[in-house]
Amino acid sequence: MPVPGKSTVAERAAIKGGRGRAVLAGCALVACLAVLLSLGTWQMQRLAWKERLLADMTERRHATPVAIEAIEQVKREGGDIEYRPVTVTGVFDHGRERHFLATFNGQSGYHVYTPLQMADGRFVFVNRGFVPFDRKEPQTRREGEVEGVQAISGLARDSLAGKPSALVPDNDLAKNIFYWKDLSAMASSDGIAPEALVPFFVDAGAAPNPGGLPIGGVTQFDLPNNHLQYAMTWYGLALALVGVSGLYIWRSRR
Length: 254
What we know:
about 20% strand, five-stranded mixed barrel, 4 helices
């Protein structure tokens, strides 16, 4: 004979267990939804930041060039010097060229960074432009090793605080091949003391060099801006999660 109330107790326990699982599933759903929405919102914030950056870059590129001392002042005051047009005068020390692995119009080679000694005795590293692999050594492009005082117009470029990624190889100082633009290493490997160094680079403009090399005007402006696509992906996943969860709840109730 069945014991009165036994089935009711079991049913209540089952209902309670089901409610507990439903609460846990609901909490997990809310947590996942919050993560997806926060990632989408973060990408929208990154989109606004990138659009401001691109607008600033465009505005700066078309500004009137200023003397390098003005850029140094902005740097000392903690301002952003990236892509600001600048002019500098001095004498290139071609024997101290540093070579940065790079590509230009689909061709592999190097950007030539040459210290320019200014009238006050200090040096600024100028990215004079691109040379192919087989023209890395200065003796293969003697015409472009200009002598005497040179007036350079270009864009100020900030130095990096460290290696941009663990995937980037270490710079090979022995072979004079740089995989990332380490200004301190370029200077120290050339015997230039920190106090004699301008703390940023200058990318030379597109004015042609004798003999055609290096090819100037190699500054990259086409920064990737995929943040809207990423944001829509995260928001789309959040919407899909809500849809699938709603369908599951509807079927369960039926």
